[in-house]
Amino acid sequence: MIKIMTAAERHTTHDDGIHSEFSFSFGDYTDPHNEHFGSLLAHNEYVLKPMEGFDRRFHHDLVIVHLVLEGKLTYEDDKGKFMELTPGTIHVVNTGSGVYHAENNASSSEDVRYLEMWFLPAEPGLEASHHQGDFTQAQRLNQMLPIIGSGDGERSLPQSLDVVMYSSILETGKELTYSLSEDRRMHVYVISGQVEISSEDGVFDISSGDAARIQRRHELTFQGNSSEGNSEVVIIDMP
User: Fold this and answer.
1) Labelling 148: which of 10, 133, 140, 158 has CA 20 to 30 A away?
2) Residue 9 in 3-state DSSP?
3) What would you report as the CA-atom Rg of the chain, rounded to the nearest whole angstrom?
C-alpha cells in the first residue's frame, strides 16, 4: 500500500522567526489519524531566520535526527555537546535517559533550513549518545547512500535503531530500484524536484515537500522527474 501525503497537507506554523512544517501530530497540532508511521514519530521541516531558534528543552527515550539542507545549524546540550551542522552533515542523538538540548541559527544574515525526525529507540533508558556523519553530493548522485543505518560500521546509529536512512540526488530520467520487505515500512520525502515512484500499486509523482508512506512488500523504482534540474530525496526503511 502506498499513501501520498502532499506538502499542502502538512501543518504549517509561523512563530517568532521560525517556520515549521509538521508531517505528523506535533506540539499544538493534534490529529488522532496522523500520529506516527511505524517507528517514525515526527518529521518536521524548519526554517530558522537569522539569530532565531529553540531554547533548551528536555526529551528522553527518543532518537532525534537533524539533517541540514541550507545554512548552518548550531546544536548544544547539557551533556557538553556543541556542534555546527551544515549541508552534507547528519546528526543523531539518542536522548536515552534524558537530554536538555537546543538548536539555533547563529548567523546574522542567512536562514537555516533543516529536517528534524524523531524515532522510537530500540531500548528505553539508555545512556545518551551522539552520532555525526558527513557525505558529499557525488556520493549520492544517482545512488541510494545509507547516511545512517543499523548494525556496525561508520554509519551505524548509536545503540542500534532498526532504521536505515538513504539520501539520493537523482538526475532527470535516472532510476533506482529497491525491494521493501513484507514486515517493513518506507517513508519517502522529496526535498527538492520531483520523483516518480513505480510499483505494483501504480505510478505516483511526488514533488518538493510531498511524502510517500509505503507498507508491505514492494518492488520499487524511483526516477528523477524534474524539468528544472536534479531531485533530492530522503528514503527511510524502518519497522
Assistant:
1) 10
2) helix
3) 17
Residue whose grid cell is 547516511: 147
CA–CA dist 53, 237 (Å, integer): 30
Cα gap 205→194, rounded to integer Å? 7
Rounded Cα gap, residues 133 and 153, in angstroms = 12
If you write DSSP's letter for every residue of 70-95 in order, what string do you get? ES-EEEEETTS-EEEE-TTEEEEEE-
Q: How would CATH label the architecture of 8-134?
A: Sandwich (2.60)
**Residue ranges of the domains in the chain?**
8-134
CB atoms within 10 A of CB 82: 8
- The amino acid that residue 60 corresponds to is H
Q: Are 190 and 209 in contact (CB under 8 A)?
A: yes
pTM over 0.85: yes
Contacts of 149 by beta carbon, 8 Å cutoff, 6+ apart: 155, 156, 157, 163, 164, 165
| Long-range Cβ pairs for the range 138-142 (8 Å, 24+) | 140/167, 140/168, 140/169, 140/232, 141/169, 141/171, 141/230, 142/168, 142/169, 142/170, 142/171, 142/174, 142/176
Question: Can you tell me the distance from the alpha carbon of 231 to that of 7, in angstroms, rounded to the nearest whole number?
Answer: 16
Range with lowest mean pLDDT among 40-49, 153-162, 199-208: 153-162
